[in-house]
TrEMBL record:
GO-annotated molecular function: magnesium ion binding; terpene synthase activity
GO biological process: diterpenoid biosynthetic process; hydrocarbon biosynthetic process
Cofactor dependency: Mg(2+)
Signal peptide (UniProt feature, chain positions): none
Domain Terpene synthase metal-binding: 185-423
Pfam family, one: Terpene_synth_C
Lineage: superkingdom: Eukaryota
Terpene synthase N-terminal domain sequence ranges: 1-127
InterPro entries recorded: Isoprenoid_synthase_dom_sf (IPR008949), Terpene_cyclase-like_1_C (IPR034741), Terpene_cyclase_plant_C1 (IPR044814), Terpene_synth_N (IPR001906), Terpene_synth_N_sf (IPR036965), Terpene_synthase-like (IPR050148), Terpene_synthase_metal-bd (IPR005630), Terpenoid_cyclase/PrenylTrfase (IPR008930)
Keywords associated with the record: Lyase, Magnesium, Metal-binding
Cross-referenced CDD domains: Terpene_cyclase_plant_C1
Name of this protein: Uncharacterized protein
Keyword Magnesium: yes
C-alpha cells in the first residue's frame, strides 16, 4: 500500500503515517526472514527512499554458489522488476547492486517479447525511467494508468489519486498563467530574440523540484529565476561580445543599477530584468521573515555569472582546458549550486537559514547533482555545440587530458554520472545535517536532468518535452 500511495503521487498527504510504518518495517527487516525477491527488493527500496540505511547484503541469498544471481530468478518478472528498481538506490561500494542492475536489465530485456502487453509496458517504462530517477508528477501520471488496471487496486485510493492529480493540475495551470503574464509584461520574447523562449519549460523544470501546494511561492520565485538564467546563459553563450560580457559581468558583480543603464541594449535589458526580479523577491522574502536570504541568492547568482564569463573567454580565446580545470568552472556554470540554494527561497521553516548557509558551502549532494547536470548536458549537446563555436565540453576536455577517443570519453562520463547518483543516494540517507524535504529538492533537480537530457537536449529542442509537459499540465484524468 505504501508503494502505491507514493507512486500515485498522494504520499504528501500521509507523511507522518508513512514515516511511522516504514520505521516499523525497518525494525523487522533482517537477513533471517525468508523474503521472496519481490518483497525483499520492495522493502529495501521503500526504506532507502525514506533515508533509512538498510544493508544490501539481503540480496546475497539470491545468488548461486558461483556468486552470480540465480538463473531461476529470470522466471520471476515481478521480482526482477522489483530488484531492478531497488538497485537504483545504491551507493558507492555496493557492488551487489551494480550487479543487480546489469542482471535485471539484461534479463528483463530478454523476456520482453514473452510478456503480456500490460506487463511488457511496465517493464519498458522502468527500463527507460527507473522510479528513483523519475519526477514525482510524471510517475504519478504514469502509475495512475497502471494502477487503474490492477485487479487488486483499492478503488477509493485510485479515485482519491485521480481527484488529487486533477486538483493539483488546475493549481499548477493557474500558477503558470500568472508566470506567463509576468514573462509577457517583461517583453522577454521581444527584448531577447536570440534567447530560447522557454517559460513553460522553465515552469515544468521547477514543477519537477516541488509540486505540492505549500510550495507555490517557491515555485513562482524559482521559475522566474531559472527563466532569467536561461536568458543570461544564451547571452554569454551565443550573443554578447567579449567586451560587452565583461561590462555585464562587472555590473552584476557590483549589483550596480546605475551602471546597468549604460550597457548596450540587450545587456541593459537582461541586467535590469534581473535587478527588478531580485527587488520583487526581496519584498517577498521580507514579508515571509526571510530577508536574510536575498544576499545569499545574490552571491550564488554572481558566482554563476562569473563562471558563464570564464567559459565565454575560453571560447573567444580558443582555449581548451583540461577536464579538471573545466569541471572547476563548469559545475557552477550549470547553475545547479545556485539553483539548489534558490530552491529554498520561499520555504518558511525554522531551519531554512541554516540550510541556506549549508547549501552555500557546496556540500557533496549539491556537487553530485551538479556533476549529473553538467555531464548529461555535455554528452547530448557537445556535437551540435562544437559546430557553432561553443565553449569546449567535458567530452573534448577529457579527450585532451587523457588522450581518449570520443567513445571512451563518453563512457567515462557516463560512469561519473552513475557515481553522481550514488553520491546523491548516500547523502539522502539518515542521519542528515538538514531535513529530508530540503534534500528532496536537490534530488529532484538531478531527476529533471534525467528527464530532459537523457537522450537529447529536450530543453533546447522543446518539442521533445511536449508530451511530458502536456501530460502533467494539460491532460486531465477521468474516473
Amino acid at each position: 500500500m505504501i508503494d502505491s500511495v507514493q507512486r500515485l503521487g498522494v504520499a504528501y498527504h500521509f507523511e507522518t503515517e508513512i514515516e511511522g510504518a516504514l520505521h516499523e518495517i525497518a525494525a523487522n527487516f533482517n537477513h533471517e526472514i525468508e523474503y521472496d525477491l519481490y518483497t525483499a527488493a520492495l522493502q529495501f527500496r521503500l526504506l532507502r527512499q525514506q533515508g533509512i540505511k538498510v544493508c544490501c547484503d539481503i540480496f546475497e541469498k539470491f545468488k548461486d554458489s558461483r556468486g552470480k544471481f540465480k538463473d531461476c530468478l529470470l522466471k520471476d518478472v515481478p521480482g526482477m522488476l522489483s530488484l531492478y528498481e531497488a538497485a537504483h538506490l545504491g551507493i558507492r561500494g555496493e557492488d551487489i547492486l551494480d550487479e543487480a542492475i546489469a542482471f535485471t536489465t539484461t534479463g528483463l530485456e530478454s523476456v520482453l517479447k514473452q510478456l503480456s502487453t500490460k506487463l511488457a509496458e511496465q517493464v519498458r517504462h522502468a527500463l527507460n525511467r527507473p522510479i528513483r530517477k523519475c519526477l514525482p508528477r510524471l510517475e504519478a501520471r504514469h502509475y495512475i494508468s497502471v494502477y487503474s488496471t490492477d485487479e487488486s487496486r483499492n478503488k477509493t485510493l485510485l479515485r482519491f489519486a485521480i481527484m488529487d492529480f486533477n486538483l493539483l493540475q488546475g493549481l499548477h495551470r493557474k500558477e503558470l498563467s500568472g508566470i506567463t503574464k509576468w514573462w509577457k509584461d517583461e517583453q522577454a520574447s521581444t527584448k531577447f530574440p536570440y534567447a530560447r523562449d522557454r517559460i513553460v519549460e522553465c515552469y515544468f523544470w521547477i514543477l519537477g523540484v516541488y509540486f505540492e501546494p505549500k510550495y507555490a511561492l517557491a515555485r513562482k520565485i524559482m521559475t522566474k529565476i531559472i527563466s532569467v538564467l536561461s536568458i543570461l546563459d544564451d547571452t554569454y553563450d551565443a550573443y554578447g561580445t567579449n567586451e560587452e560580457l565583461q561590462l555585464l559581468t562587472e555590473t552584476i558583480q557590483r549589483w550596480d543599477t546605475e551602471a546597468a543603464d549604460t550597457l548596450p541594449e540587450s545587456m541593459r535589458n537582461v541586467c535590469l530584468m534581473l535587478f527588478r526580479l531580485y527587488n520583487d523577491i526581496g519584498e517577498e522574502m521580507e514579508e515571509q521573515g526571510m530577508s536574510f536570504a536575498i544576499q545569499y541568492a545574490k552571491e550564488g547568482l554572481i558566482k554563476a555569472v562569473q563562471c558563464y564569463h570564464a567559459e565565454s573567454k575560453w571560447r573567444d580565446e580558443g582555449y581548451l582546458p583540461t577536464f579538471d580545470e573545466y569541471m572547476e568552472i563548469a559545475l557552477f556554470s550549470t547553475t545547479y549550486p545556485f539553483l539548489s540554494l534558490a530552491s529554498f527561497l520561499g520555504i518558511v521553516e525554522p531551519s531554512t537559514k541554516e540550510v541556506i548557509e549549508w547549501v552555500g558551502n557546496f556540500p557533496k549532494i549539491v556537487e553530485a547533482s551538479s556533476i549529473i547536470c553538467r555531464l548529461m548536458d555535455d554528452i547530448v549537446s557537445h556535437t551540435f555545440e562544437q559546430e557553432r563555436h561553443h565553449v569546449a565540453s567535458a567530452v573534448e576536455c577529457y579527450m585532451k587530458q587523457c588522450g581518449a577517443s570520443e567513445e571512451d570519453a563518453i563512457e567515462y562520463l557516463r560512469k561519473e554520472i552513475a557515481n553522481g547518483w550514488k553520491d546523491v543516494n548516500e547523502q539522502c540517507l539518515k542521519p542528515n545535517k538538514v531535513p529530508d524535504f530540503f534534500l528532496q529538492r536537490i534530488l529532484n533537480l538531478a531527476r529533471v536532468m534525467d528527464i530532459l537530457y537523457k537522450d537529447d537536449d529536450a530543453y533546447t529542442n522543446s518539442y521533445l518535452a511536449k508530451d511530458m509537459i502536456s501530460s502533467v499540465l494539460m491532460e486531465s484524468l477521468s474516473f
